[in-house]
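Entry:
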Amino acid sequence: MNVLFFIAKRVIGKGGKGGKISRPTINIAIAGVAIGIAVMLLTVAIVVGFQSSIRDKVEGFNADIQINKLDNNNSMEPSPIDRFQPFLSELRKMPEVKHLEVYATKNGIIKTKTENEGVLLDGVGSDYDWSFIKKNLVKGAILNPADSTPGNIRPPAGQGIIISQTIASELGADTGSKLFIFFVTRGRKADSEGNYSYEQRVKTFYVKGIYHTGFDEFDRQIVFVDIGQIQNLNFWTPSQVGGFEVTCNNFKKVDEDESAINKIIGEDLEATSIRKTNSAIFDWLDLQNVNAAIIIVLMVIVSAIAMVSALIVLILEHTNLIGLLKTFGMTNRNIQKIFMMQGAYLIILGLFWGNVTGLSLCWLQSHYGLIKLSQETYYISQVPIYLNWKYIAVLNAGAFVCCMLIQTLPSLIIARIRPAVTVKYK
């Protein structure tokens, strides 16, 4: 093997540039591999980054799994359930569960002197995870956890509201602004036939904070209030809530977690994963994987063609050497190994420069945001980057293996070279 390696080094030439004929082809092959792996790295980093950014925003508004009453109510206002469920202690012990909180929602219409805006009030309690809203808060503050104390719903406690910058701009509202929100609520008691009457109610809220996520579909719709307000509007008791929201440790297993949770919560309740409640968004995100796969396949083909061309030129340039080696008794297989070593060296060289280029561009984009996006269209203001060393390793290993496998085809030319012809015309 040392002899084969020595000959391979001599054939490839000083610095891996090859001979006069093969040098341009070798340079093109190295550049082809470098461009291919750089594009693949950028593609995966951008696609995964885009998926993660959008998923984080959807999760910020909707937990991974929601637990609600199992009934025919398909509205955005779930039927009430008791917040003190027997399964909660078991649910909190599950290794898949990261966080558990109560919630309730109610539709309303915000009215000012000049504008109206339909919204969905997301009632949250003292156990609500504010990390997402804090990250996207542009003005004001979050609701005080003490506001969620049962009965503490009179101003200023309990009547704070957090709205989006989109809603604030359309209503001309700012922190401290007074907002009147109108609701349609079912009455307290049913008539003799069991039918409920509906009444219009109005509540006053004061803008405590303004957030902005750039996800217009949610920014235009969702506002945050104390859960006590929802309970009061619906004539619920302090122990009644709309449901539970569960944040999981591994989003990839959210459907499996949904099944596991459904087994312990009983037949009267139902756990639904975020992938089902927002199926259109996640189907769109999954579609990005197809685009990424197409680009990666094309780049692998380009790199492989470049390497095949370089190896063919190297073989043709050294046909006399091949004939001489055969005359000395070297087998076709060993001669193929010589040229495969050359190909491996060129591939590694191309991968090195491709990684340097691709990772450098990723670092520049992630730190400086050089390429901007229209937030109205893409929900994010700049091209997102997500780097994972597992993805990098798999891409490099996959590109190397594919290029090496495709190189076995031109190396078969060696078996057709006859020493009697090549040595005679040297």
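The first strand starts at residue 65 and ends at 69.
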